[in-house]
Design brief:
Blueprint: H1 2-20, H2 44-47, E1 57-58, E2 63-64, H3 66-72, H4 75-80, E3 84-89, E4 94-96, H5 101-104, E5 120-128, E6 131-135, H6 136-141, E7 147-150, E8 162-164, E9 167-177, E10 182-187, E11 199-200, E12 209-215, E13 223-232, E14 239-243, E15 254-256, E16 261-268, E17 273-276, E18 281-284, E19 286-287, E20 293-296, H7 299-308, H8 315-321, H9 334-337
Parallel strand pairs: 1-19, 11-16
Antiparallel strand pairs: 2-13, 3-5, 3-7, 4-8, 5-6, 6-10, 7-9, 9-10, 12-13, 12-15, 13-14, 14-20, 15-16, 16-20, 17-18
Helix pairs in contact: 7-8
């Protein structure tokens, strides 16, 4: 069993190296990957063999379902969860008898999420009835014409289940920012007049701020991390650090403050998994020490989208909500704002369609 798994991983390396942009003959180890550009299982398992003892889960996992979150969160923060969407590959929003993560990601049986079916490639947030913000690298992994966006992937899917979500196709990308790794995507119109959209926080983060993270970790159903805090970055007022359990599939997921306002979206983080050679499977990495992952504001990319398409029905309200954006604060002391645990080289650069 042990040798067959290793052989399986080596075969994945040979097959997936081209997709990852790696040279199979290179003597160098594969570069670390990110919480994700969508799940690409040809790439992930082998690359994650290098993910030894990186902090990803900080103490206990604080994920709950949207229904459970509604029971404990303030009303406005709970309502913001409904603006979260999942980005799937086209034609996968209906199906049955999917493979669990124990097969697709070789996750160990006793790990969280191990028995769930992963469908989502990335996460996103609705800021208008037909406007979604997400991480730009998600569009590199799954271009507009290949994605479908669903708002109702909230229930756990097990291998014996069938599913059928109401999906909307992407019509075009209105704006993207390579520096911040953010993008605005236009979706097919919806007849649902009650669809939830997020309000964007315009006040800059200047101190540690409690929040929640709503995303699709490892491509599974919507999970809410109740124990998140956001800290400012001295590099830019539009970049922030956050402590929370972001995984592959969480890219583009929204972080919301106590008022339910969208602080920013997940853009990068630390490696999620390590290979347990004794158990012959992948484990979620845990650490009791603090680690931080990266968050980006969507204010500038929304302005860019509305400058490109000023007549868009959602732009008038979006621009009105951004009118009171605060003047950029004075530079903040690096020592107070840059998390001391994470070195620059530990922050992963986006790679093959995670």
């Amino acid at each position: 069993m042990r040798y067959s798994l290793v052989l399986h991983l080596l075969l994945l390396a040979a097959l997936g190296a081209g997709a990852c942009g790696l040279d199979p003959s290179s003597p160098e180890s594969p570069p670390p990957l990110h919480p994700d550009e969508g799940l690409d299982f040809d790439c992930d398992p082998v690359v994650d063999l290098t993910a030894l003892h990186q902090p990803v889960i900080y103490g206990n996992i604080n994920w709950v379902s949207p229904a459970e979150a509604h029971e404990v969160l303030p009303p406005r923060q709970a309502a913001a969860i409904e603006a979260e969407v999942a980005i799937l590959r086209a034609n996968t929003h209906t199906g049955s008898h999917g493979a669990p993560l124990t097969q697709t990601l070789l996750l160990c049986d006793e790990e969280p999420l191990a028995d769930e079916v992963a469908l989502s490639r990335c996460s996103g947030v609705l800021v208008g009835p037909d406007l979604m913000v997400t991480a730009r690298h998600c569009l590199d992994a799954l271009p507009c014409d290949q994605m479908v966006v669903v708002s109702d992937f909230d229930e756990v899917i097990l291998p014996e289940d069938s599913w059928a979500f109401e999906g909307r196709r992407c019509t075009r990308v209105l704006a993207s920012d390579a520096g911040l790794d953010t993008a605005v995507v236009e979706l097919e119109p919806t007849a649902n007049r009650d669809i939830s959209v997020a309000k964007v926080r315009v006040e800059k983060i200047t101190q540690t701020t409690p929040a929640i993270l709503v995303s699709h970790p490892l491509g599974t159903s919507t999970k809410v991390d109740l124990d998140v805090d956001v800290r400012p970055s001295a590099r830019s007022p539009e970049l922030m650090w956050f402590r929370g359990d972001a995984f592959q599939g969480s890219s583009g997921g929204g972080v919301f403050d106590v008022d339910g306002h969208l602080v920013g979206i997940v853009t990068s983080g630390l490696i999620d998994l390590s290979y347990d050679r004794d158990a012959n499977c992948m484990r979620i990495v845990r650490s009791e020490s603090e680690g931080f992952e990266r968050l980006a504001s969507v204010i500038s990319v929304l302005r860019q989208a509305c400058e490109f398409e000023p007549e868009h029905q959602a732009c008038a309200e979006i621009l009105k909500s951004l009118e009171h954006e605060e003047v950029q604060p004075e530079p903040i002391d690096d020592e107070l704002t840059e998390p001391p645990v994470i070195l620059p080289e530990q922050i992963e650069e986006r790679g093959c369609g995670q």
